[in-house]
Specification:
13 helices; alpha/beta; 2 domains; Rossmann fold; five-stranded parallel sheet; 22% strand
């Protein structure tokens, strides 16, 4: 009986009866998870959330009558609940999934597009893992009923020093990172030094992520390509499925994007980026680890700090998942922990401090 009490209660929401059955059976294979119900649309889901009080919701992105994003926008301010989206690996699916993450979803998995049998096993393994992670996610922002508009940061005070054109700001993030990254770079003035970012995402998602950020930031935001220059006023996002590294050519910094084996379970990997920044930029860099599950980036941030860079990590109270920042801090890579809303100003202060 005690075991049943500690299992994670999951409600599956999908308009396809077959998908609901597959997800319920696949999740039920894990002894730590109990599927307490299923719903074919958000209206039924709403009633079952109240009735069954699930710990985690799995939610189809595209549904008739009300899509997953609209449902999230209505659900989260009233009934904050960890949600894992189930998304199609398509252009439209990627766009909608990013909207869902902005609306409050903790994470997502993508449906297999080829080799269904093998892809389905891989998807279910990821879904089980992410459901268990979501059950521990920090939803403080939603529980305090902060809207995205209310949480919008004020621009940082002051301008980047004129001598900071050779500086590089490197950021790594995973679960919860899309919102955290937006909060930070939306506050940057166009004069900020060049920024390089790894956010754990598959191919096809990072282009939409970069385009969305470019529409709301004073800095130019691009999905990176090999030989793109790191320069003031520009932010480069590592493309999904490729590692991004920094190299020096004459007096300028460039990026290189290449396919490769996963590092710490990820491609792109934060560690790969940070180690290259440590080697090529050294004390001219600032490194930041944001919310995320696992330990990717911790070793690289330590290498950056040992090379003379200034380093910090997001604190537990504002991290959706305090995994990567915690490991980075305990390893000694992050000098200090900082709430997300103060990180932009801290970066600006460090830029001035270093000149």
């Amino acid at each position: 009986m005690e075991q049943l009490k500690t299992r994670i209660k999951v409600l599956v929401v999908d308009d396809s009866a077959l998908v609901r059955e597959i997800l319920a059976q696949g999740l039920g294979m894990d002894p730590e998870i109990e599927v307490v119900g299923a719903a074919s649309n958000p209206y039924i889901a709403r009633d079952k959330i109240v009735q069954l009080k699930p710990d985690v919701l799995t939610l189809d992105v595209e549904m008739p009558r009300m899509d997953g994003v609209e449902f999230l926008r209505r659900l989260m301010p009233q009934y904050p609940l960890p949600v894992v989206m189930v998304s199609a690996l398509t252009r439209e699916g990627a766009k909608t999934t990013l909207e869902a993450l902005e609306a409050g979803a903790v994470d997502y998995v993508t449906k297999p597009s080829s080799d269904i049998a093998r892809g389905l096993d891989s998807m279910m393994n990821k879904l089980r893992q992410k459901v268990k992670m979501a059950a521990t996610a920090n939803l403080r922002e939603w529980k305090e009923k902060k809207t995205a508009a209310a949480a919008k940061l004020q621009p940082v005070s002051g301008a980047a020093p004129a001598e900071s054109t050779d500086k590089v700001i490197a950021i790594g993030a995973s679960t919860g990172g899309t919102r955290a990254i937006r909060q930070i770079i939306q506050s940057f003035p166009a004069s900020m030094p060049g920024v390089v970012i790894v956010q754990h995402m598959p191919a096809g998602f990072t282009k939409h992520f970069a385009d969305n950020l470019n529409n709301i930031c004073e800095m130019e935001v691009l999905e990176a390509s090999t030989n793109d220059r790191i320069m003031p006023g520009r932010i480069l996002i590592a493309p999904g499925g490729k590692h991004m590294t920094v190299k020096r050519s004459g007096g300028v910094y460039l990026v290189e994007c290449r396919e490769g084996d996963k590092v710490n379970g990820h491609c792109p990997s934060v560690d790969v980026l940070f180690h290259s920044v440590a080697g090529k930029v050294g004390s001219n860099a600032i490194g930041i680890i944001l919310t995320g599950m696992g330990h990717d980036g911790a070793d690289g941030l330590l290498a950056m700090r040992n090379a003379g860079a200034r380093t910090l990590a997001q604190d537990e109270s504002t991290s959706v998942v305090f995994g990567m920042p915690k490991v980075a801090y305990e390893l000694g890579g992050a000098e200090f922990l900082q709430p997300i809303d103060t990180i932009p100003q801290v970066i600006m202060n460090l830029l001035h401090e270093k000149n």
